[in-house]
Amino acid sequence: MSAPDSVSSLTLNMKYLLVIISGVCIDLMVSLAMIKLLDSSLIKAAVIGYLFGLCFVYFLHERFTFSTFNNNLAAKRIFRYLLVSGCVLGLRLLIIKWLAPLPLFSECIILVILIANFMSFSINYIAAVYLIFGKKSP
Hints:
Elements: H1 3-37, H2 42-65, H3 74-99, H4 103-106, H5 109-132
Helix pairs in contact: 1-2, 1-5, 2-3, 3-5
């Protein structure tokens, strides 16, 4: 890898990190606001928070992280992104259903949300880099 490639890779990784941290923050803020202010269920708050973060992250990836907004393959990417994200959301809900009733987590809802959030955005990271926005993905 030459110096420009490594600089480019570093820049891409920094962009990705900024976008994903922003998405996680939006997800957490929406989820917590729904639980604390609207007295929503944990599941409902987790779904809506995830969807807000998901939309934010996708559009920033298209426009900022991977700079592919002029690419004609965006429709294929968005379909794959939604498919993967639906599976990840299902996994997130299973994690919440499994953790929430446990004695350690039943009193600390924020910990359940943080664990589920970390797991789902980690999987989304792998999917985005290798399956959806990667150089070899259509």
